[in-house]
Inverse folding.
C-alpha cells in the first residue's frame, strides 16, 4: 500500500496485491452499483454481431478509406488487420510488460504515479475521495511531444522494456497517421485535413497505457475499467491474445469483442467526434475481469496538440447540421476525467449541451 501523498486523496492499494492475497471476496471499494455490474440487463452482448474488421493491406485504395469511414460512423470501433506492424513486435510488447507486472512490488513502486500527470505505475483514475474503484493496475507513459518525454518514468526492468516500447510506439504512431488519412478521405476531405486539425503530424500527442487486470475472486461484482468513451483522438489497442474482456456498447447492449489474432482494435475518441461534428462517433466501452486468468492489454492514444482549441471543422458545419460543440483545448478537456474518473459519455455530452445553449 502506498500513502495518500503525491496528490491522491487516500492510500493507494495495488489491485495485484489484493488478487495475490488469496482473499475470497473483494473489498467494498470495488463493488459496482448493481446496474453497472457485468450481469446487469443488456450486459451479456446478446447480439452475435461483432465489430467490423478492416483490411489495411492497401491503404491507398479508396475502398480502404470507405471501410474505415463506415466503421467510424456506424460502430466507432473496428479491428485492423494487415496493418503493417510486425506480429513479432506485438508479442515482444506484450512480453516485456507482462515481465514488468511480475517484478517485485518494491521495483514497481519506484515508478508510482500521481494525479499531476498520471505518468508511471497506477491503480486508480480520478481523485474523488471514497470513489468506487476499478479492478486493475496500469502503467501510463508520455511518448510525444518531446517536452513531456521523461526517461526517468520508463522502467528499467525487464531490460528490453524501454527499447521495445519505444519501437512499438513509433510503429503504432505511424499506423495512426495512415488511419488519419483514411478517416479524412472518408469524410470527403483532403488526405491531410484531419491531421492538420490535430496540429499536424509533429503536433500530435502520443501516450501509452498498459492495463493489467489481475484475477478477481468475484468478477460478477466489479469491472476492470468502468464504462467510458476515450477523451483523446484515437486509440489503438493491442488486446490480450488469450483472454477476452473488452465490451462495446451497441444499441443498449454490451458486445464482447473477440480479438482477431495479430489485429489492433481501433476506436474513435471524443476529440475526433468533436472535430467531425459527430460524423464519427466515440462509443462507450468497458472491461470485465476474470476469476481464472489475468489479462493485459496495451493502448496507444493518438491525441491532438493539447493547447489547440478544437471545434467542428467548418466544412462539416451547415445550416442543416449546425456545430454541436464549443471550442475547447485537449488540456482543458482531459482535466475532467482526471478529476472524476471514467463516466460514460457524460463529458462530451456536456460539451454538446453548452454549444446548443450558446446557439439559441
Amino acid at each position: 500500500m502506498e500513502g495518500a501523498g503525491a496528490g491522491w486523496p487516500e492510500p493507494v492499494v495495488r489491485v495485484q496485491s489484493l488478487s495475490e492475497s488469496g482473499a475470497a471476496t473483494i473489498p467494498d471499494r470495488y463493488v459496482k452499483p448493481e446496474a453497472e455490474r457485468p450481469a446487469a440487463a443488456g450486459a451479456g452482448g446478446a447480439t452475435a454481431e461483432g465489430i467490423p474488421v478492416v483490411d489495411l493491406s492497401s491503404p491507398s485504395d479508396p475502398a480502404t478509406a470507405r471501410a474505415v469511414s463506415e466503421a467510424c460512423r456506424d460502430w466507432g470501433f473496428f479491428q485492423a488487420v494487415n496493418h503493417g506492424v510486425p506480429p513479432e513486435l506485438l508479442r515482444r510488447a506484450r512480453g516485456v510488460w507482462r515481465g514488468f507486472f511480475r517484478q517485485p512490488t518494491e521495483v514497481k513502486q519506484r515508478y508510482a504515479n500521481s494525479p499531476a500527470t498520471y505518468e508511471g505505475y497506477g491503480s486508480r483514475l480520478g481523485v474523488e475521495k471514497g470513489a468506487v474503484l476499478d479492478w486493475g493496475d496500469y502503467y501510463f507513459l508520455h511518448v510525444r511531444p518531446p517536452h513531456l518525454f521523461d526517461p526517468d518514468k520508463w522502467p528499467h526492468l525487464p531490460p528490453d522494456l524501454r527499447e521495445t516500447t519505444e519501437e512499438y510506439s513509433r510503429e503504432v504512431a505511424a499506423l495512426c497517421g495512415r488511419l488519419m488519412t483514411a478517416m479524412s478521405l472518408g469524410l470527403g476531405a483532403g488526405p491531410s485535413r484531419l491531421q492538420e486539425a490535430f496540429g499536424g503530424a509533429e503536433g500530435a500527442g502520443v501516450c501509452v497505457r498498459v492495463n493489467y487486470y489481475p484475477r478477481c475472486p468475484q468478477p460478477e461484482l466489479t469491472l476492470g475499467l468502468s464504462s467510458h468513451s476515450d477523451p483523446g483522438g484515437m486509440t489503438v489497442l493491442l488486446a490480450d491474445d488469450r483472454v477476452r474482456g473488452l465490451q462495446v456498447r451497441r444499441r443498449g447492449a454490451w458486445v464482447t469483442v473477440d480479438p482477431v489474432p495479430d489485429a489492433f482494435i481501433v476506436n474513435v475518441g471524443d476529440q475526433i467526434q468533436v472535430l467531425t461534428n459527430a460524423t464519427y462517433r466515440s462509443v462507450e466501452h468497458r472491461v470485465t475481469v476474470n476469476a481464472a486468468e489475468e489479462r493485459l492489454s496495451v493502448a496507444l492514444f493518438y491525441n491532438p496538440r493539447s493547447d489547440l482549441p478544437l471545434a467542428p471543422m467548418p466544412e462539416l458545419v451547415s445550416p442543416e447540421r449546425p456545430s454541436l460543440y464549443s471550442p475547447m483545448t485537449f488540456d482543458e478537456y482531459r482535466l475532467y476525467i482526471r478529476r472524476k474518473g471514467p463516466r460514460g459519455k457524460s463529458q462530451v455530452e456536456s460539451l454538446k449541451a453548452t454549444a446548443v445553449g450558446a446557439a439559441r
Observations:
- The first strand starts at residue 53 and ends at 55.
- The first helix runs from residue 15 to 20.
- The chain has a mean pLDDT of 91.
- The CA atoms of residues 76 and 281 lie 5 Å apart.
